[in-house]
Every structure is written in C-alpha cells, then in structure tokens.
Write a structure and sequence with these properties.
38% of the residues lie in helices and 27% in strands. It is an alpha+beta fold and 520 residues long. A hairpin with a 2-residue loop joins strand 18 and strand 19.
C-alpha cells in the first residue's frame, strides 16, 4: 500500500507539472493575441489618426539678427552671417475647455477596435502685451545705416536685430493634423479669422496651423516692444489686453495630452467615457464621475512656467535648429513622455545664453491629459485568471485524492488526466469568447461548460450522484470565488491569501482523524 500511495502522489505531482507547462504555453497565446490587437490599433493610427497632443496656442514673431563683426581693408571679412530666431509671446491667461465624445465603434478591424474620440476644444486667451513683451530681448532697429566705429582702418559693426512684425502669427500646434477635420475658427478682438496651414514652417518639429495677426494687434504688440508713447499712437491702447478665442474640432485615438503654456492656465475636460486613466505629469485638481461620464480640471503653474522656458529657449535658437518634440504615443507608460521633468538635450559646450544659439538641440515639453483605456481588458483579465489555474487543478486533484482516501474510491491516473484537460479547456474557451462578448459572460459560459462536463464525468468516476454533486459544487464554488477575487482589483491579493488559508484549513479539518500510516 505504501508503494501504491507513493506512486499515486508521484503521478498527481507529474500531472500538475505537465499542466503547468501547458499553462505557460497558453500564456504565450495570450501575449500573441494581445500583440496582434495592439498592432491593429497601431495600423489604425497610421492610416487614420494618432493620439493627440495639443500645445496651448502662442504668438510667434520672426527676428533676423546680424551679429557684431569686425572687418578691415587688408584683412578677410570676419563677420558671421545673419541668422533668424523666433520670439514667443505667451498668454497671460488661458482657459481650455475640452468636450469629448469617446467611442469604440469608429475604427474596427474584425474583432479588434481602437478607442477613438471626437470633440470640440476651445481656448479662451488673454494677452497682456505690456507684460508678455518683456520676454522678448530684441527690439526693432529702425535705421537706414548700421552704427559703425572706425579705429585705425578697422570697422566695427554693432549687433542688429530686426523684428518682422508683419510676419507675427498665432500658432496652434496639434501633433497630428489629420485629426483636424476643419480648420479652426479664431476670434481676435472680435475679428473672426480662419486658420491656415503654414506655407513654410518656421517651427522645427511642430505640426501646426497658424493665423496671421490683424494689423491693430500687431501695432499693439509693436508699441510695447519699441516703447512708443501712446501719444504717437492715438488709436492704440498699449495696456489693453488682446482677447483671443479658438474653436478647434479634434479627433484622435486612445489618449489626449495637453501642454500648458502662458502665465495662468486652466484645463476643463468633459467626456462620456466611464473609465478614464489620467496620465502625464499632473493629476486633475478636481474630478467627478457619474453615469454620463466624467469631468476633470487641471491647474499646475510650475509645469506651465517650465514649458514657457523650454519652448522660448528652443525657438530662440538660430535658424530653427532646435526641435520641439510634441507627440502623444499609444503606450505612454513605456516612454519618457511622463518623467518628472521635461527632457532637454544640450551640446556639451556652451550655455543657453551663448551667442552662437547652437547649444539647444531638442526639448520635450511637460504634458498631462487622459487615456481612454478599456475598462475590461480581456487579455489582462484572462492573464489574471490564469494565475489561479494551478491552484484550481491542485484543489480538483486533491479533492479526488481525498475521495480515494476517505471514501475508498479508486480513480485511475487517466481519469485525473481527463479532468485536468477539462480544467484547461476552460482557459481555451475563455479567451476567444471574451474577444467576442463581455468578459463576465465569457467567464460564465466557459465556467458553466467545464463544470457541467466535469460534473457529468465524475458521476461515473466517483460512482454516485451524491459524490458527483459534492465535487461539482466545490468546483463551481471555486470558479465563483476566483471571479469575485478578480473583480476586486484593490483587494485581490488579500482575498486570494485569505481564500488559500480557508482552503488549507478545510483540508486540515477534513483529514484531522485520518491515520496516514494505516493508509500507507
């Protein structure tokens, strides 16, 4: 008997190892299916529209700078060539409102789909030229001839900076312009204008639409920069705020990021999506969830000021040599988009304030927003379910073994093998069903099918209705308990530990009077 018991335990342990290998192989199937689903979403993004990242609009003014140089009659010209830079004027106050309609039915490929959104984004901005223009270091030089000084046949030409006010533009950056169905409407001081695509991009790395500023707005900015008295511009109040409203229709998939700029920025988002995942470098200050969706509000002055610095420094480099990296990605958790600070790549030599303007290569700005993640990811839930698979097999085999010990039943290893195969079939059914219907429905169908099949089979294995009913009830209770643990994400580890403790206690109570030496 001792040899028989040892052989039986060895067979059960070997079957458990065999099924553990089978579970590992099935895990690779889950990974493969998830990768294929992700590849379909990436294909949809490539063919239609990507996740979006929006930078708060700002005013850009081109500047041509002629460096200081020295030349002599008997020497080669040592003057550096002129270069262009971009001066930026940020809003003193910005209020962004995003109203998004999220759907999973817009983009589909068979059973796979991408979570998309369509909506209206409104920026209400107020520019105070007297304050904003202080960040512009250059001034318009209105002289016909450069200042020169002759010293011993050597001519020194002073540095000049010419601000091209007539080319001042309101910049509206959107990471993927395919998601802009119609060009946005812009109201500047009650003048309604239509944005246009730039004929020649003056901002390296950014995709954007632009609006040429009206003449009175340009004159107002120029009056502050050149310190012209109000008496010389009787129609211009230099201290009057410039009010700008931007109405932008936007579409994208998966997530939407916003880059705040200016002095005072506030973002308000409203959507019909019930399971948002807030991403980026700042969480909402306030959020509210209801049956209709969610609302959220952001305010973060530190990130806004940091973006102002990075963006203005990058655009002030010579000849558009700095790249602004502004784009959202499908899987934001695996990228550097949301690190603790913006990434700034600089050359080893020189400082930001150096005159060569060649030290800043690229910047990535701070952003925050929301990811419209699937509330019930079937692959993640199936993977979590499989974590309890080996425990389910062990309990089933252990129950069979206890029937052999307590009720003197004889169960062949082949019967153990068939029951284990039926338990594995549950996971084979679960994943393809969950890809077609709701996860709880797939779990119920797969679980009921396997419990029914095993219950019918154990009627013949255990030789009685009562024993089959007991085993079937235990198995059904296990499936129900595991599903309850899965649905409580915050307490699943604790509930799983308590559940294992209770099972062990039940086994110890049931076998407390068994004389194992006598059985052996």
């Amino acid at each position: 008997m001792q040899k028989t018991l040892f052989i039986k335990l060895t067979v059960i342990a070997s079957l458990c190892v065999l099924f553990a290998i089978g579970l590992t192989m099935f895990s690779s199937v889950i990974t493969e299916r998830q990768y294929y689903a992700d590849s379909v979403v990436r294909e949809i993004a490539d063919q239609h529209v990507n996740p979006q990242e929006i930078i708060t609009p700002f005013i850009a003014i081109p500047v041509t700078t002629t460096p200081e140089c020295t030349s002599a009659a008997n020497k080669a010209n040592e003057c550096a060539p002129p270069f262009t830079t971009i001066d930026t004027v940020f809003a003193a106050q910005s209020l962004a409102t995003q109203k998004l309609d999220v759907s999973t039915n817009t983009y589909q490929r068979g059973i796979y789909h991408a979570t998309s959104y369509n909506g209206e984004i409104t920026f209400k901005q107020s520019y105070k030229p007297q304050t904003a223009i202080e960040s512009i270091e250059t001034a318009d030089v209105q002289t016909d001839m450069p200042d020169t000084t002759a010293v011993h046949d050597t001519i020194t030409t002073a540095k000049q900076a010419i601000t091209h006010w007539e080319q001042a533009k309101l910049i509206i950056p959107v990471s993927d312009l395919r998601g802009v169905p119609t060009l946005p409407t812009v109201t500047i001081d009650k003048q309604t204008l239509k944005a246009t695509y730039p004929s020649v991009s003056m901002l390296n790395g950014l995709s954007y639409v632009e609006v040429a500023l009206p003449k009175n707005t340009v004159t107002q900015l120029k009056a502050n920069a050149t310190a012209l008295p109000n008496t010389a511009n009787s129609n211009i109040n230099a201290n009057q705020a410039i009010d700008i409203t931007i109405d932008l229709l936007l579409a994208g998939i998966s997530n939407l990021n916003t880059v705040p700029t200016g002095s005072n920025f506030e973002l308000s988002m409203q959507s019909n999506w019930h399971a948002p995942n807030f991403i980026g470098k700042a969480l909402p200050n306030n959020k509210d969830f209801s049956a209709e969706g969610f609302t959220a509000n952001w305010q973060n002055q530190y990130l806004t000021v940091a973006n102002n610095q990075y963006l203005s420094q990058c655009l002030s480099t010579a000849n558009n040599s700095c790249t602004v990296d502004s784009r959202a990605r499908l899987d934001s958790s695996n990228h550097a988009d949301y690190e603790a600070a913006a990434v700034v790549v600089q050359e080893a030599a020189g400082s930001i304030g150096s005159t060569n303007h060649g030290n800043l290569n690229s910047v990535h700005l701070n952003s925050f927003g929301v990811s419209f993640a699937e509330p019930n990811d079937v692959y993640l839930q199936t993977e979590r379910t499989m974590k309890y698979a080996l425990l389910l097999i062990l309990i089933s085999f252990g129950t069979f073994f206890l029937f052999e010990v307590i009720k003197s039943s004889r169960i062949h290893p082949i019967q153990y093998l068939l029951v284990g195969c039926a338990l594995l079939t549950f996971y084979v059914l679960l994943l393809p069903l969950a890809e077609q219907i709701a996860f709880w429905q797939a779990y119920a169908i797969a679980g009921s099918s396997c419990v029914g099949l095993i219950g019918w089979y154990t009627y013949y294995v255990l030789g009685g209705v009562k024993r089959a009913v007991i085993f079937t009830a235990i198995l059904a209770g296990l499936y129900a308990a595991f599903y309850g643990i899965l649905t409580t994400e915050d307490l699943n580890l604790l509930l799983g530990a308590v559940f294992c403790f209770i099972l062990l206690a039940c086994v110890m109570i049931m076998t407390r009077k068994i004389d194992w030496y006598k059985i052996a």
